[in-house]
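Deliverable D5.2: sample structural annotation.
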Amino acid sequence: MWGFTFFPALSTWTKTILDPVLLGFVGAPVLYFLVVLKLKRLITKLKENERLLRAAKEKAEEWAGALDVVEDPIFLHDRRFRILRCNKAYQLCAGIPFKEILGQPYYEIFPKAAAPLPSCLKALEKEEEEELSVGEASYRSRAFSVKDEQGVYLYSVHTLEDITERRNLEENLRQSLKMESVGRLAGGVAHDFNNMLGVILGHAELALTCLEPTQPLYADLEEIRKAANRSADLTRQLLTFARKQTISPKVVDLNKVMADIFKMLKRLIGDNIEFNWQPAAGLWVVKVDPAQIEQALTNLCVNARDAIADVGKITIEMGNSTINEADCGSQAAMVPGEYVRLAVIDNGSGIAKVMLGNIFEPFFTTKALGKGTGLGLAMVYGAAKQNNGFITVDSEPGKGATFTMYLPRHVGEVEQKRMEGAKGPISRGHETILLVEDNPGMRKTTALILEMQGYTVVAAATPGEGIRLAREHAGKIHLLMTDVIMPEMNGWDLAKELLSVYPSLKCMFISGHTADILARNGVLDEGIYFIQKPFSAKDLSVKIREALGDK
């Protein structure tokens, strides 16, 4: 080494030439040893993997008979999620023969997933559970690992429990609870709110009768009247969605119902939209509340109009449909039976798929802020349900929407008698009416309207006072007009009390709340005369004449 110190050039030459030589003699054996060692370890690992795979397959074969007995899909997979064994239920779900399933990564077969489930990844070490959806079906996924006597991982067992029915039941329960909550909310405010609206609407109409249309104040009062009616519509829509709205079903031909409102709907939709409807031949009759179906049709047409940006087309189709079990499919709302189908079809903007599940919920709207209340479709949903039918929607963005209401067929005669026909002048009367109303404002307003129509009014604030005034009254009382919800005694019990003394007394009920006392499931029995608050003077006049026996 000293020579290298004194002769730098020689030192540089030696390092350049001799170092690779020395490396060749010394490094080659070391490198060879390392390669051989690596190969031995790899071979040992491959043998161990082969042993584990063979053991896993043997265990899987032991499980085979037991797996096929289980109704839920079960499969066994290795660390790479390759299927080692599966039962017949899994093969049916996958729709693939066993030979094509074996050895394939489970997530490429069933369920259709882009990657292993989180539970599978974790199940390599411990037991895991989660829920997943595959198309319209829902499953509870459970996975756990199996190890040998030394604690070495062999394979994972994966089960899929079909919980679709349970999910549907849970969804129906959530929907029922939601409707019940909305019903309580609407019912809680409806009584007082409709009393206040009744006072506003009544006084506005009374004032309008005292003014000429040319007077400046007339237009202001007309706006008050319209606002009161719109506010009343909101409450009615809430009650309808919750199926708390009192209805009076009639046996009708929907062709006739549609014909009565076609011109009104055409004006509402506007001239820029093509509006088509043709009566359906051989249409079955249905037993529904005509006014409620008219309102539902109006809401569907207004929504269709709003979905069309400029020019477009709205078509109303009607027909008979027989729904069987196979037709119901994934539509939880559908029930087998014979129905009259009423569809409103538009070529507007359509509805995104993610929104379809919420489209009938109250206050849910796809319209811009301030452009809609979110109650129109909720009211349509409630109307279909309350009339023992259902509604479906089919839509895609940019391809329009089709809302189809199914109303059950009624086997019987057509009874085309309209409940609301206040289109002419207000009918005047001369009879005596006993008015029992606990709300002071509503009692005063109603009495004024009745007196202006020519009736003699005996007004009472309580049922007890009404009974006393009836006994003290010298002449004949022709009609009892009573609120349903009152302290001391409800209107129905009051009517029964007075009818026991005055059998010829006619009775009419009014309410701003759901009339559960009068109706079963919101449906009035035949022969009961009822008017919902707030009401117009014309509607009240028509209903009174009807209750008194005028046809």
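Annotation notes: The chain has a mean pLDDT of 77. The chain has 16 helices and 19 strands.
The annotation will be released with the project's public dataset once the embargo ends.
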